[in-house]
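Sharing a chain and its predicted structure for anyone who wants a worked example. Both blocks are below, sequence first, tokens second.
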Amino acid sequence: MHAAMINAALRAAVEHHAFHADPAGDETTDGVEAAVSEALLIAARGFSR
């Protein structure tokens, strides 16, 4: 169950970044790293319940 939750969080973060990233912008990874970090923190909160 935890693996499925992590997988879903990672997928949602990467898809969110892909849909909201500026295609004309530079190729930095800051946005995707922030999205993945936030998604994993949200998933981790679900583990403590």
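Comments welcome. The mean pLDDT is 80.
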